[in-house]
Amino acid sequence: MSEAFTDCVNLAKGELRRANQLLQEEIRSYPTPISGCDAQFNHLLAERQKIARAIGALETTVFVPNPRSPMPVSGIESR
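^ thats the sequence. predicted structure below, dont judge the formating
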């Protein structure tokens, strides 16, 4: 991977982590509602899940099969 690409991915992860912190602070300071009945609070929780999934997607190693390595566990060239 090129340095510029890696820098962009790291920047994206940092921004998502910052967004997650801000969202956590907003959730923490949210006035106590009736949990399942507050649409705005539920929206904040949904946004938190989206951010967590986005961070996870950026941190996940993706396996791309090819003729020499058809499965992630193969590790050795298949012939």
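Residues 3-59 form one domain.
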